Amino acid sequence: MSQHTLPDDLSTGTDYETLAQRFRPIFAEIAQTALQRERERKLPYEPINWLKQAGFGAVRVPKQYGGAGASLPQLFQLLVELATADSNLPQALRGHFAFVEDRLNAPASPEREVWFKRFVAGEIVGNAWTEIGEVAVGEVITRVSRQGDKLLLNGRKFYSTGSIFADWIDVYAQVDGTNQDVIAAIRTSDPGVTQSDDWDGFGQRTTGSGSTVFENVTVEAENLIDFASRFKYQTAFYQLVLLAVLAGIGKAVERDVAQHVRDRKRVFSTGNASSVSQDAQIQQVVGEISALAYAAEATAIRAAHPAQRAYEARFGNDAARERQANIDAELESGKAQIVVSELVLRASTQLFNALGASSARAELLLDRHWRNARTVASHNPLIYKARIAGDWAINGTEPPYVWQIGRGKA
């Protein structure tokens, strides 16, 4: 479907620099306070509010509804910039942007317009999908049941990333009786919702990825969404957010290593110059880090283009074109994950080759870059992404679009 045949109310892109300039002062403020939050493990309530008030959560909403109309590559470029300031924040907003994307892909309706108005007003959505413990692959313990004229949600989720900052939660559940897979959108302020900041990972420590408990929470009928209708490239989308996070970490490594080399006064007797900033070998290390960060960002943004094609094809009449765009979105985001993870982990290790033992001091928190990158790279195991890409290349096997985690068969 060519550009001029697209419906007028799609988000196909805007002037990126104009859009980014709206948020860069906020990104700069976030960067100034990022180390303090990391040091104190202080959740970023205030930075999230800055972004909400500035309309960051509505950048993908079409212009006709008050949003910025950004394309997916533009969204992910913005998330790279935000991740450079603080890598926790794009991941905390991951569930929000995925829910926005689902509403963008939904058929036009009064209900969809209500959600657009909420996004433009600054409301954001968290997520609660994953269950831990004895739940088996394919099972969902969280249930929606009918009691009289009410729909009630009950269950417990972990990895509820960003929900502690959100106005709404996107909850994956099943309906009692039919076992239909659904998304229940409920307000965080609703009676029966309990949130905990109990994420104990060694990286990405302030994403708000804790537990959420739902006890007889009322679900409005219009906020119960059939999971089968969810946008096809959702798993690619979730991975693209993590790619933006990784690329931002790479750029933060480049920023920090250059600054520390620039400021460093002590030199080794085995070095090549009277100042570290003039040492040719140190310059080489920093240059290699810069190249790794460049390649990571370029790959992450390139991988977002098939998802934009899939979004646009959703509103066309060419099923074959839409199918291929979704295949490309899944495969390219997966292949990018394999490469970008390696690039950024290498960059976050090379940093210490440029700075020596003093860079390991806890007060500098330079280790956070590796810890954060390692944590993000562990999502959606990349070894399986490599197999899926290989199976496509060899056998033309279409990639899976949804996967689950849980206890395997005995």
Describe it:
- This protein is α+β, with helices and mostly antiparallel strands and 410 residues long.
- The protein contains eleven helices and eight strands.
- It has three domains: 122 residues, Orthogonal Bundle (Butyryl-Coa Dehydrogenase, subunit A, domain 1); 87 residues, Butyryl-CoA Dehydrogenase, subunit A, domain 2, CATH 2.40.110.10; 162 residues, Up-down Bundle (Butyryl-CoA Dehydrogenase, subunit A, domain 3).
- The protein is 49% helix and 11% strand.
- Strand 4 and strand 5 form a beta hairpin.
- The chain is globular.
- The mean pLDDT is 94.
- Belongs to the DszC flavin monooxygenase family.
- One of its GO terms (molecular function) is 3-methylbutanoyl-CoA dehydrogenase activity.
Largest sheet: 8 strands, mixed
Number of domains: 3
CA-based shape: globular
Rg calculated over all Cα atoms: 22 Å
The CATH architecture of the largest domain is: Up-down Bundle
Could you spell the SSE succession in H and E letters?
Answer: HHHHHHEEEEEEEEHHHHH
Helix content: 40-55%
- Name the CATH class of the largest domain: Mainly Alpha
Kindly state the number of beta strands.
8
- The CATH topology of the largest domain: Butyryl-CoA Dehydrogenase, subunit A, domain 3
Helix segment tally? 11
Portion in strands: 5-15%
Measured distance between first and last alpha carbons = 48 Å
Low-confidence stretches: none
Mean pLDDT metric? 94
Q: CATH homologous superfamily name of the largest domain?
A: Butyryl-CoA Dehydrogenase, subunit A, domain 3
Structural class: alpha+beta
